[in-house]
Automatic annotation (TrEMBL):
Belongs to the short-chain dehydrogenases/reductases (SDR) family. Pfam families: adh_short_C2. Residues 13-189 form the Ketoreductase domain. GO terms for molecular function: carbonyl reductase (NADPH) activity; glucose 1-dehydrogenase [NAD(P)+] activity; L-xylulose reductase (NADPH) activity. Keywords: NADP, Oxidoreductase. It is an enzyme of class 1 (oxidoreductase). One of its GO terms (biological process) is glucose metabolic process. Homotetramer. The keyword Oxidoreductase applies. It comes from the Bacteria. Its EC number is 1.1.1.47. This is Glucose 1-dehydrogenase.
Length: 253
């Protein structure tokens, strides 16, 4: 019997990563490129994308920048059509909102639901349609949150969007599985990113949070990149419809 190592590489694959100019999306784009993928890096602002592309190119990787607004349906459809054939998607673009439930405004509902749910759905739909037309056995990774698995105080709207994204992930897995398209979700806990800068600046909050995390530390973007690349790779070829928490063990309790 010949021993065969699991294939964690992404050579020959084209992967679209949304929200790739900073934070988790940036780390995933860099990790996917380092694993051999051609990465289509997308975000609203070109400046951040150019910086990520330069890092990929410097290390001999391949990338294409694709600025678009992941909350604008027409812009999403234009951009995905421009992206060309894709083998994978990391649906990462999103926003967070923090306010007590009784104070949540209608304008915030529209903003956060529009990006985190409607926008994410349309991106996934357009990419999956392209895969289906081409007969591509692709992989889609939705970046959800542990707030999509449990409740979250003072983040009711955000939690609602991530619970919706988990429902979408499971339903997509059921419908797209027969086409050979796998769909999974990575669910980060608190991650040290620009979106969490206000929380990370609160030393008391950070200290209290670390005490609640079994691993004793707050996650970094690279902690999320590895699981995302795994779920894009052939090493996870039998996995679809899962929620993979990356939270230092918080949801184990």
């Amino acid at each position: 019997m010949t021993l065969a190592a699991p294939d964690f590489r992404l050579d020959g694959r084209r992967i679209l990563v949304t929200g790739a100019s900073r934070g988790i999306g940036r780390a995933i784009a860099l990790a996917a490129a380092a694993s051999g993928a051609e990465v289509v890096i997308a975000a609203r602002r070109r400046a951040g994308l150019d910086e990520v592309a330069a890092l990929i190119d410097r290390d001999g990787g391949r990338s294409t920048t694709l600025p678009f607004d992941a909350a604008d349906a027409a812009d999403i459809r234009r951009a995905v059509a421009m992206a060309g054939p894709l083998d994978g998607l990391v649906n990462n673009a999103g926003s967070v909102t923090r306010e007590p439930f009784l104070e949540a405004s209608e304008s915030e509902m529209d903003r956060v639901l529009g990006l985190n749910v409607k926008g994410a759905t349309i991106v996934a739909q357009e990419v999956a349609r392209g895969m289906a037309r081409a007969g591509t056995k692709g992989a889609i990774v939705n970046i959800a949150s542990v707030a999509g698995l449990v409740g979250a105080r003072n983040r009711s709207l955000y939690a609602a969007t991530k619970h919706a994204l988990m429902g979408l992930t499971r339903a997509m897995a059921l419908e797209l599985g027969p086409l050979g398209i796998r769909v999974n979700a990575v669910c980060p806990g608190l991650v040290n990113t620009p979106l969490a800068a206000d929380l990370m600046a609160d030393e008391a909050f950070v200290a209290a949070t670390r005490k609640r995390i079994p691993l004793g530390r707050i996650m970094e973007p690279d902690d999320i990149a590895g699981p995302a690349v795994f779920l894009l790779s052939a090493a996870s070829s039998g996995i679809t419809g899962i929620a993979l928490p990356v939270d230092g063990g918080v949801t184990a309790e």
